[in-house]
Amino acid sequence: MTPSATASFLRRLPKAELHLHLEGTIAPETLVELSRRHDPEPLTLAQAEALYQYTDFTGFLMAFKAVSDRLRTPEDYELITFRMAEQLAAQGIVHAEVYVAVGVIYFWGRSEFEPLFAGMERARLLAERDFGLSLFWIFDAVRHFGVEPAARVFRKAAEMRREYPSIVGIGIGGDERRGPAELFRGLYSEARDAGLHLTVHAGEAVGPESIWGALNLGAERLGHALTAIEDPELVHVLAERQIPVEICMTSNLRTGCCARLQDHPVRRYFDSGLLVTLNSDDPAMFGSNLEGEFLLAHQEFGFTEEHLRELAANSIEASFLPAEQKVRWLHQIEQSIE
Questions:
Q1: Among 108, 136, 193, 223, which residue is least crowded by beta carbons within 10 Å?
Q2: Which residues pair with 199 in a beta bridge?
Q3: From the CB of residue 135, how many other CB atoms can be counted at a distance below 10 Å?
Q4: Bridge partners of 197?
Q5: Can you say whether the dihedral through the CA atoms of 273, 289, 251, 18 is positive or negative?
Q6: 184 touches 147 (CB < 8 A)
Q7: Residue from 9, 14, 80 nearest 325 by CA
Q8: Residues 22 and 85 sit within 8 Å (Cβ to Cβ)
Q9: Sign of the CA dihedral 55, 60, 62, 67?
Q10: Which residues pair with 165 in a beta bridge?
């Protein structure tokens, strides 16, 4: 396929994004708008763009916090959610499961999360009406903040999902080096008992032992799993159990977790039978999006049109959508064959 034909094919291909942080979708222009609402001396566009320039994972975390600090009102969250939905729909994305940094919100001292979430929900309903896009929420705790702050996040998810069925799961992100998965075993068991789906960021900046730890928590999906390739037994287990891996190629490059694109294990995972999904993670901060990740897979790793269709199907299969909705989207993916 020519580049233009590939892009056209991808936009017509129904697909889901499963590893996407709401706060990481905020473009510099939107950050300037938020800054004008809240900062005594608003950021210029150049200053906002500079926040997105970093060379390692620690720098990324600092940039993420700087962006989150300017999200303060329900209207802020409504704005960024609707703009995210516009960006997703333009790429042919039909469903997204979006991480919300509830742990960061609490860290900044905002004790009342429900009004902020109401703004997100207003935008979610508008997106469903205007774009036919479904959105689910995953409440994300910051592992290096500790166990008690994570407990607050997970219990809030369990409490609120009784009113908002769009809240489907929980996860832990942040610095794996300072928050091993084992610390959260009891909380994950509690979340499972509350009916929440379990996700874990694992094997992004540390070795495969972090991924084994995530599996021990009962993770239903793994964010990144970049370092699984270092452990052949782990790769075999992931393939055998068909535990979805949320692959984020551009993110891994921008955070320095993967030194060179050609070293990324995405193709080796796919060829080994892992249930691979492609994702953008924080598209505004990394200068990519899901369409770009599919194009990378095609251009740099030799994924064919049929492979791309399989990746799209994987994203639906790995989602937390009800079975009947999965069947509907999988049927449309099959019909995308020209």
A1: 193
A2: 221
A3: 24
A4: 169
A5: negative
A6: yes
A7: 14
A8: no
A9: positive
A10: none
Distance of CA 331 to the CA centre of its chain: 25
d(CA 100, CA 117): 10
Query: Do 42 and 32 touch, CB atoms closer than 8 A?
Result: yes
pLDDT above 90 covers what percent of the chain?
84
C-alpha span between 18 and 279 (Å, rounded): 6
Give residue-wise pLDDT tens across range 148-162.
999 999 999 999 999
Helix axes 290-301, 3-12, angle to 10 degrees: 130
* The pair of three-digit structure tokens given for residue 102, joined into one six-digit string: 């509830």
Q: Which CATH superfamily is domain 3-335 in?
A: Metal-dependent hydrolases (3.20.20.140)
Quickly state the pLDDT bin for 338 (edges 50, 70, 90): low
Query: How many angstroms separate the CA atoms of 275 and 228, rounded?
Result: 13
User: What single string gives the DSSP state of each residue in 20-85?
Assistant: EEGGGG--HHHHHHHHHHH-SSPPPHHHHHHHT--SSHHHHHHHHHHHHTT--SHHHHHHHHHHHH
CA angle 31/36/40 to nearest 5° reads 120
What are the C-alpha distances in Å from 197 to residues 171, 217, 294? 9, 12, 26
Mean per-residue pLDDT, 288-306: 96
Angle at CA of residue 100, ends 94 and 104, nearest 5°: 165
CA proximity to 255, closest of 277, 287, 233, 278 = 287
Q: What is the pTM of this model?
A: 0.94
Element (H, E) at 223: strand 221-224
Would you name the residues annotated as active-site residues? 204
For residue 297, give every residue at least 6 positions away whose Cβ sits within 8 Å of its Cβ, in sequence order, or none. Answer: 249, 266, 267, 278, 303, 307, 308, 311
Residues 6+ apart with CB under 8 A from 142: 101, 103, 104, 107, 149, 150, 172, 173, 174, 179
Taking the C-alpha atoms of residue 305 and residue 310, their distance in angstroms, rounded to an integer, is 9
Instruction: Measure the CA–CA gap between 84 and 98, rounded to whole angstroms.
Output: 10
